[in-house]
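Troubleshooting log. The previous structure file for this entry was overwritten by mistake, so regenerating from the original sequence record. Sequence copied from the archived sheet and checked twice against the printout by T.R.
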Amino acid sequence: MEKDIPVKKELVSYCGLYCGFCFKYKKGKCTGCAENEKATWCKIRKCCVEKNIKSCAECDEFSDVKDCKKFDSFVSKMFEYVFNSDRKEGIKMIKESGPEEFARYMVENKLVSMKRRKK
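Regenerated output below.
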């Protein structure tokens, strides 16, 4: 039986994922994006830390997150394809509804990432 996953805005990642449903977080192998200081490889995390913002949803450098090359890199596009993920939609929801509502939605739907909609 799966342990209860908390609804915590602190588990919203910088790039629009919800760490509470990540298998590494659930197994205690990761503290979540905001606390994971070992994730020096993540350009998005580094950028948000430098700007002192909680996620790309708070960034005022780009009007659309897909214009950011750190966010919409080749690796990110491959991640989204392989995992049927739509982090852009996650960032949009965080902007519109706030991190608390995003966290609640992700827990209710048991998601790490928003799913891509079929076109």
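The chain has one domain: 9-108. Archived copy saved in two places this time.
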